[in-house]
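To: structure subgroup
Subject: Chain for Friday's discussion

All,

I'm putting the inputs and outputs inline so they're searchable in the archive.
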Amino acid sequence: METTRRAGLVAAILLLAVTPSAAPQSSRAPQNPTVPQNLPAPRRSTPPGDVYVSLATGPVQWRTSDGALRGELVDLVPGPAQGMRIDPSGNLYVARRCADASCTVGNSVEKFNPMGVSQGAVGGETGYNCNPHSIAFDAAGNTFVGQAACTGHVLKFTSDSTPHEHKVAPDSRGSSWIDLAGDGCTLFYTSRGPNVKRFDVCTKSQRPDFNVDLLPGGDTQGLRSLDDGGVLVASGAVVARLDPAGALIQTYAVEPSEPQYWVGLDLDTDGSFWAVNSATSNVYQFDLATGEVRREFNTGTAPHTAVDVIVRRGKKPSPAPPGGVTLH
């Protein structure tokens, strides 16, 4: 009987040793309600590349895909940072809006090498009308720059000294955000209106708007063409997905408790995309198929300062020594 009692006692002790206790629950309310709370756990797959985030205050943040801040790129060109793009050689291009009323400061595009060191302004002193806002590249290495003001034309930079102007039709703000489709001819662009607009850069002709119906929110911004022929576009309080015929088939958003105004976005290689919520300066990674939030981080800056996000694909270079990147 004594042996049986001792065996039962040992078993009970062992059971307590391997059974985890419930974690304590905190009733403390979050201090910053605009920072995402209680989102689904990140989906762990092949780790995506680092991301850059441009800020209207001027800097460009360099972060890991989990949101950890690697550093800030040291800029040599003044002006608010707007849309970004990485060329096939790994150089980062950042559009910089006019920084003064006369547009004599800023109004250019800055190039950073793969180590994050500024190479200065590109496009010439008189290459832009005003407020370059977004960038795209074609397979031949030519550069396209969308402009948000003045003429609003899309500029094409080649080996010639003078850029060619594509006189695209605006909605409201020129050719603020641009992306070149896989055919190398169709330039999708937005103009702060309710449409995804199109221009054929091969025939130099305006094409009909891509969307079948006016987009929700009526204020289209960053966009990317999809492999299936559709388009992903930021549109006010949602990110909208259009099918190859221009029909709205899906929208993406976060919890309604968070103010939302979506601006820049970029596709990742794992079936996801990143998008900037300007209203809170939060950055999210969404699953393209399901809309699930995989990752998120806050830029640590004021609302309405985060502008664009872009993914560095492939091998991640180490940040340059201090002087090119302010390390954190």
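Points worth raising on Friday:
The mean pLDDT is 86.
DSSP finds one helix and 25 strands in the chain.

D.
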